[in-house]
Structures are given as C-alpha cells and as structure tokens.
Amino acid sequence: MARYPTLEDYHARRNYSDGVKRCDDLLRKSPNDIQLLTTKFKLLATQSSQQADSTHKDDSTAVLETLATLPNPIQDLTDLCQIEMAAVEAAQTTHPPLLTAGPQISKLWDAAVKATPSLTRKLDIMSTRWERAVFDDRLADMQLALIQLKALQPRNRVVYLAHAAVTQMLSSTEGDLQGRLAVGLARKAMGPGFEGAGDAGLDWRVPGQIFAVQGLVEEVTGVSRGKGGESRQVWEFLRGLERREGKEGKAVDAVVLDPAAVPAKEWLVAEIARLKQEFAGLIAAQASVDTIRAFAMNAIRLFHSATTTLSTNARRSPADACFLAISATVRLFEQTTSLNYLLHTAYLAEHLLTTHPDIHEARLILVYIYMRLNLASLAITYFDSLNVKEIQHDTISHVLFTRLSLLHPHPTLLKAKKETYDPLRQLRRGLDVYVRCEAKLAETEASVLHHGQTGMLLDLHELRENLRFSLARRIAVLEWRRAGRLMRNKCEDHDSLSSMGPHVVRNWTESKDNRDFNAAFDYGYRVETMLHGTGVALPGKAWVAFALAADTAWCLATDQPPAVVDLGDAWTLAIREATTSTKSTDGTPATAANLGLTPPELLAGTLAQRVLTLLLLARQPHNATSTNNSDSSSSSSEPANKPSHHLASALQAVSTALTDLNIPSLTSTQEPLATHLPDHYLYADALRTVLAACTALTKKDPTTTAAAAVTPSLSPDIEALRKHAREGFAALQRHAVEQVAGIKGKGVRELMMREDEGLWEAVLELDQSSSSSGGGGVDGFSILGTRKKTISSARRMVGWEKKVCQAPSRQVDSARGNWAGAEGAGHADDAGELAVSDADEVLDDPSADGGASTEVDEEEEGEEPDGFEWLSNSATAVV
After folding, report:
1. I need a labelling partner for 704 at 20 to 30 A (CA). Which of 29, 35, 71, 806 fits?
2. What is the rounded distance in angstroms from the CA atom of residue 340 to the CA atom of residue 756?
3. DSSP-assigned beta bridge partners for residue 316
4. 421 membership: H or E segment, kind and range
C-alpha cells in the first residue's frame, strides 16, 4: 500500500497543489479517511495563509466542514489538535487576531464530547480544548470550553470563577454584553449559598476584579472590606477613587533647619527635601538657564559635602543630592543643547558609583547618558552591570536596544568580565526573553483549573498581552534585523517575530508602550524621557513605521522574506506617518521631533519608503502599475499602461530623497564626540538599500522583480542613481577616516572645561576629593580614559565597501588609501571582532598608501574599539 502524503512532503518546495491532488486521488477510494482529510485540510490551509488566495480558503473550509460532519466523529486528541492548529495557522495574517478557531472547529470538539460515554474522557477532551485555547490566546474558545466544563461539573466553583474571569476578559468596554454577564456571574459568586463545604480554599479575587474593572463603586467598597479585596484591580480602583475625591495627602512644605543646631544626617535629609521642592518649582516655572545653573552648582556642592565633610554614612542622601544635580544639569542640556553638560552628568554619576557602588539608578542613568552621547560601548558596560531581570526586561531594555544597531552593531570586549559582547547575540537573547516568558505565563494560565488560583487569570492575560503587543519588543526586533543586514546582509527570522501576532503592518504599529521612564528618579523633571527622546516625543509608532519600511525595502531588494505580508500597506503607512497622521494643530506636516525621530531618521525613512514604492511598482504586472504614488509627479494625462513612466517617476523620487540626505553637510562637520555617529550608520544602511534595489531592478531574473517593466530607457536613470549612492557612501567613508584621525582625548577635556560660569569649578571640587581618596578624579573618567571609546577603528568599512559598492573608481580607491593611512598605526581589534577580509590586510601595514596622520597618543594605544568602527567584512556582496 502506498504511503499516505503528509504536509512535510510538500512544505519544502511549497508545491501544495500536488499534495492536494494526491489526497484527492486517495480520497476517491476512502472518502471518510480522517488522516487524508486532515492532511488535505492542512495543505489547503497552509497554501491559503501563504498565498492569500480566497479559493484555497473556501476549499479548506469545505474540507473542515466534511471533517466536522463525519458519521464517526473524531475522538483522537492528537487529530483534533492538529486540525485546530492548522485552522489557527490559516488565520495568522488576520488582524485583529481571531478569538476563536471557527465554528467548524467547535463542532469537532462538541462532536467528540458527545460521542464519548465516559465522564473522565469528556473532561480530558474539554481540558485539552481549554489548554489549547489558552496557549493560542483564543478567549472565545476558552469561554466555550469553560461553559462545557461547567455543564459537566456544575459544583466545581473553580471552573465557575474561571468562567467569570474569562467573560470579563472578553469585555471591551464598561457595560457591554460580556461585561454585564461577568458582573452577573460575580454577584452570584458573592451571594449566599454559593460557597459549599469544600470551597474553603477558593480564590475569591475574581468578583472584586470584575467589579473594579466595570467601575462599580458600591460593590468594590463592599468587597474591599471582606474576602476578595486583595487584588491589584481593587487597590488601583480605590486609589483612583481617593484621588478623585481629593482625599490624598497633600505635600508638606520642607522645613529649613539650622545645620549647627541639629545632627548632620538630619540636616542633610531636610536640606535635600527642600531642594527637591525647589527644583520642582523651578521646572514648573520654566526657570532660566542662569537659575537652573545656580541650582545645579548648589546641588553639586551639597553632594560633595555629603560624601566628604558631613560624613553621615548615609546611603540615600548623597545619592539624592547627586541625582538633583544630574536633573538640573540635564535640564541645562535641554535648554542649551551643549554637550559639555551631558559630560558633567556622566561624571557626576560615575563619581557617585565610586563611593556608593550599589546605587543602581546611577548605572541606569549612565546608560541613558552614554546612549545619548552615542558612546554605546560605555552604555553596554553599565547596562550589563545592571543585571536586568527577565521581569524587568520589557520595561527597561529599550534604554540600550533602541538605536543600538546604529551605534554599535559589531562585537566589543567587556573589560570588567573579559567577555565579548555581541549586540546581535544580545538582541537575540533579549527577544528570547519574550518567547520564554510568554510560554511560562501561558503554562501558568492553562494550569489554573488544577491549582485553583483563578484570581491570576486577569493579571496573566494582561501580562501576556503586554508582552505580545510590546512596543519595546517591536523596536528590538527591528534593531536586530537591521544589525543583521548591516553585519551579515540578511534579516533572520526569530520565534519572537512569529509569536507577535499577525504579520501585517497594523500589528506592528498598534502596540502597547510598557517602557518605564521613571525607573531612576523624578523630582518634577523626567530626566529619562528627555535623554531618550528627541525633545518633543519618544520613539514610537512613526519610528516603527519607518524602520519597518526600511526593513521591507531591503528584503524585497535582496529577495528575502519580509516581516509583513501586506506590502502595499507598508509603504502607504510610512507615507501617512510622515505626512498626515501626526500633523500639528495648524495643519502643517509634523516635524521629525513630533514623530519621535531625529531629522536624519526622517530623511532616511522617507528614502526607504520611496525605494519600497519603486520596488513594489517594479513587481506589479504591467496593467497594474498605475498604482497611486504619493511621491510621483506623474501627469494624469499619461496612459495608465506605461509602466516605465511610473518607474521613471519613482526613480526620480528616490534620487530626490537621496539628495535630501545632504551628505555633504554631514561630512563637513568636525566634533570632539561621536555626535553624528548614528547618522553615518543610518545613511550607510539607506545607501546599501538603494544599491541593492538598483541591482534588483537590472537583474535578468524576473522572479524577484518584474524585470520586464524595466525598459532599456530606464537604464541610464538606474545607473545614475547607483552612482549617486556610491558617491555618498564614499563621502561617508572619507569623513569617518577624518574623524578617526582627528579626535583625541584632549578635545573631550576641552569640551568639559568649556566656560559655563562656575559649573565646571563645582565639578572640579569633586575631582579633588576623588583624587585625594585614590578614585582617579576626572582623569579616571570613562570617556577621558580612551580616545577609542569616542571615535575608533573604521577599518572594517573598507572591505565592507568593496563588497557592497563594487566601485573600483579613483574616488573610492583614494578613500581606501586615506582610510589605510589614518589607521595604519595598527591598533589591535577587540577579542570579539569578526573575521577581517584580505582587503583589510593593507590597513595593518604602516607603509600603506595615504596621506592622513598616523600619530597616536601614547596614553591611548591599545584601547578597545568603538565609535566609528564600521562593519564586519563577513558581510556578503549586495550588488
């Protein structure tokens, strides 16, 4: 007898139609064969989900109906679960995610229960259905399974309370149908006669949770005084009620004490409390720079006194004084945009750690500061020392992971641990946390019927939703994929991506922001928000949209699977986010700051969106290339059947966006810090996508792009665009060489000592005390200890450019020579550096061609690479 076909036989080649045909041939002999029908359904469902074909979807529904109406119902749990899994996978691109696997699947479970005479077997079937629904987060199916379990066990109060909790989960607004049903179930549970003799250990939190979520004041008040009042929902409801009624305690004015009349420790506590109130008042009153500077100097001197002359042995008071000084100095940075203030804040935090190494808030704020200064290896070191727990990962990881691929995509050495830190590996580990935590939460939720803690259901469901729709998770995925394409020329898949929900654009942009920007300190001024954001908004929906557009454009240009399947919506969303969805109140387009972007991110995002538009037009059939293009200046009088006209307009739009990057302006700047480091990486990434798109458009293989639409008349435009991108890349390369050769620790010292009317003198007082105690003072400051922490070896970019651009022009050869001259001194790379191609061998030769200075400070030799250390030569060719 011939072997039955399976999904795996046809999945590799995706020839599902052949598998369906094979099943049909065998079903003619055995029309009710469950294995054959299941295989056929799985083939059709998989084909439908991957090809978005309504015909295959209808066929799979018909097969499912056949399975649900078999004369002998399916009772094998393995078969039932496989069929249900296939139905769920077929709907994986549906947004919002479905709450049920469908009516046919419900019929299958119902028929299996009815056909089973044993009560124990019935309970096993329904328990399995409950667990499967929990793991897939299908609330409607969870509710149906509990209803059937209630019918089988009418006195099981655990099932009853679980049913009430799940019914509340299905409620979307106060007072809707599911909400009213949940309230009814909760009131019955709190009524007389509900609790039986064997229900002494029941978890009574569910009724109070339902009353609190539905906003029932009288019921919540009653529950809070008895059983069931010990839930987070009840506590938050009562707290909010007190706020609305004005019953919260009012702030008491700080008392000014005479330092000569009270112990030093008591005076220090009172003085810090007074300064906290004073600072909050200054922020509320929008105080001037001079006023804030005077406050900062006073706080720095108090911090100095707290750690020296007062000698109170207090732990918290010196930290509070330091954090007040940091808050004021960050406010000065916001008001003046002068980087020397950020250097002062970093030094203050580092000085605090020399005397109080256990203050984790100082380490956290240092991560924010160094990421804002674009010194990612220092930020990595302090973030690693935080030892962030998994439970904190979603709320804290954004501090480091946001824009990490633009600051430090390559490995580095953590000297404290003598370990290699690979951002790609760490980002992957961070994404693994989401998958692992979701699995643990789902397992705990599914086992509620066994351990009886039904009060956990609402909290577990909320936690799972927060993780699945997390904005920080989406940012980490996009950073991981961008680092992958920069370092390895590919965007790899990850379980965290597949478990986020439907692979559609709306699922990326409609997220939940769980980021905690109040984890360090807040004295009336959100320091963390200021350091992480752009001054107006934080990276959010628009940031994700533009990063997703860039990711999709790269995938289409290099023929890799994109992260979304609704490609048309991807570029449409990017345009809308950039121009219309966040317009200001007067109707003008939103600025980069309003969108939570830096100006270069807005420009690079616009370029990525236009490259994506170009590639989508090239992929369309000839009669469909009249798609509306918001970037096209095409005339409505042009015939709609001329694909070359639309492609020419799209090419011009890409060229215009490339010019708008204004690379000459970027490459004309000289700076003592890596201020524009992310702009170099960002533009380099965008230029690589442009070059890959040009290559894709000129390929002879029509499977990747609709090559027939690229007529010979467009070849000059494509070549001009390619040349434009190569020249921009070479300019970035030359500027990186200049930065490597020109920036030294002396420049950073001069920046720190820039005249600021006394603030530096206050910092120097800390320096003197630190030096006298053996702490190293300013000379031990992390930034000053190494030139290479600021701007360092750019050697990798040469070989990378050779592979990416393939441009043996005089201009690029000259840039390569200058690069070699600047780095000819041969600094050792860190232990985590990936393999370097033979193109870099010339860089280790001190006699290499090039006229740039090879002078290296003795104090700076052998330092760990960072800054403008570009990308690994292990990247494969793009063009």
Report:
1. 806
2. 9
3. none
4. strand 419-421
